[in-house]
Amino acid sequence: MRSNRLLAGLIAAALVATSCGGGDTSEELRPEGLGGTANQKQLDALYAAAKKAGDKKLVIYSETLGGGSARPVLELFEKRYPAIDVQAQAGFGAQLASRLDHEFAANQHVGDLLEVAVTDLERHSAQGRIEAYSPPTATAVAKEFVCAEGHALGSELSVLGIGYNTQKVKADEAPKSWDDLLDPKWKGKIALNSPLQPGHGAQIVQYLLANGFTMDWVRKLAAQDPTLVPGTRALVDRLAQGQASIGVPAATDQFLAAKAKGAPIGMTLPTGGGNVKHLNCMGIIKGAPHEDAARLFYSWWYTPEVQKVIAKKMFKASVLPGAAPPEGMPPMDRFEFWPEIPPAEYTKQQSAIIKELNPIFR
């Protein structure tokens, strides 16, 4: 049964910009940044192996790391390990699948490492494209964040919630639950991340339907005359520009990033069983031309210095217990996430759900 206990967590990020790309590096390059001398020795050994193999670069295909907000992470890696140049290329979904299809068919591999949504990672693993590897620094990663039967691990996550324009909606009047979206006062004022294509919009509808909501509820949402937008970035932009009062679903990382730049937006995060997380996973591509460099980056990712930067610069939450969340976001143990839909089942279900949603939202 759906929980009616939904606590609104107002996101109010006031992040202080601190560059990882300049200034005194004596603090950030200490062994403590790697989690201590034991981790440092393991990473030094991986770095030595990469240099011995002649790995002078690393190519990452990523849903996240190909964007500008990830540059501080890549720059920090290159400071730690200056012999390796990191090239992160944006890629996910069908576009990435097509690229990997070509590389594997031609046996001409370019990419070394994937950092993508768990559903994408699982799909590539099922095709035999992910090399099993356990980073020695990642022993604390919880079982719930182990991907592809241990071939890969969760890398970072965001939480989906309800956004609003603070110039149009007061915090105490903003929707506090998914049911609140059906209030007649929001008719014609909602921007909805389109559920008619793979993405956060389809994801939230799928999780709602799996947790006590019905297609009749979805029809009532459609009757609110929401404006469908093609992705979270477009949703944030529309909300920030005042073209909508409410935006759903709101991904914490993109909303926190926009708010840090001064956008007039707020966010509520339903809890008590009403939360959905968007998990990304990392794994080494089978046949990677720079496999040793990939092992080094993959292992370095789970160190304290990286977790600090992804929270402060990328506004992403960590998969490691006790790691500080992005400023303005509650700790992970404050959420009661809905049960994960197994990735293979998720992909199969989503196609059927999108097909059923088309006549409802057209």
UniProtKB/TrEMBL annotation:
SUPFAM superfamilies in the cross-refs: Periplasmic binding protein-like II
Gene3D superfamilies named in the record: Periplasmic binding protein-like II
Residues of the signal peptide: 1-22
Domain of life: Bacteria
This protein's UniProt keywords: Signal
Pfam families cross-referenced by the UniProt entry: SBP_bac_8
This protein's record includes keyword Ubl conjugation: no
InterPro entries (UniProt xref): SBP (IPR006059)
Transmembrane domains' residue ranges: none
Entry-linked PANTHER family: ABC TRANSPORTER SUBSTRATE-BINDING PROTEIN, THIAMINE-BINDING PERIPLASMIC PROTEIN-RELATED
Annotated protein name in UniProt: Extracellular solute-binding protein
UniProt source species: Actinomadura chibensis
